[in-house]
Amino acid sequence: MPRPSPRERLASLATAATESFGRLGYRGTRTADVAARAGMSAGSLFTYVESKEALFHLVFTYALDLLPETPELPLPTPEPGETVALFAHALQDGQPSSLQAALARDEPADTAGELRGIVEELYDTIEWAWPVLAVVECCSVEMPDLEAVWFGEGRGGIYADLAEYLRRRTASGRLRSMPDFPIAARVIGELVTWFAWHRHEGRDTALYDDKTARRTVIEFICAALIPENACEK
After folding, report:
1. Which fold has domain 6-78?
2. Is the pLDDT of residue 230 over 90?
3. pLDDT at 4 (0 to 100)
4. DSSP per-residue codes, the chain
5. Domain spanning 83-225: which superfamily?
């Protein structure tokens, strides 16, 4: 059986570390446990990453597909603030393009299609990114800079843009009126987040088929916001 390449070993470490940091936080994660989960000894872990900080940084470089094909080992300890800066940059680059495009236009030709596209992109992004987002949410309790980026510029920014989108389309009569746009945006975000992310962390995962869950959430939001008979089937 071929021996795993260094990159394959790093991928195993990144997967194991993502699970551990996402469940136990930074301080609660032990490198020895991550090594065991990745199928290696505690000592050999440090032939691949220089430190626990480097292991944490690996979680993000691997998730963002920034890990070199032939990395120099061990991966070095990042500079202070480097990991948070990497995540902040990824958030900036990963802003929902459908939502930004909708905010850039005055009136859509198809409001139902526009809204559907926004919700689909939000759902698909969270479903893809949830393991590393779980790391961010769990570890941000211990890392104020990470907390500020995620709850401020990241999640908070998306909710603010979504609320502004709802306000504009309601003002033009294209969406149903809501008592409060920030709350409506948060309802959409929390509904999407639970089915695309949080259900995978609990015991309810097997109760819902992935495709059916996605379709139901999107249809539910469209039906709630688009005036009757205007939402596409």
Report:
1. Arc Repressor Mutant, subunit A (1.10.10)
2. no
3. 86
4. -PPPPHHHHHHHHHHHHHHHHHHHHHHH--HHHHHHHTTS-HHHHTTTBSSHHHHHHHHHHHHTT---SS--SSBPPPPTTHHHHHHHHHHHHTS-HHHHHHHHSSS-S-HHHHHHHHHHHHHHHHHHHHHHHHHHHHHTTT-HHHHHIIIIIIHHHHHHHHHHHHHHHHHTTSS---S-HHHHHHHHHHHHHHHHTGGGGSTTGGGS-HHHHHHHHHHHHHHHHSPTT-S--
5. Tetracycline Repressor, domain 2 (1.10.357.10)
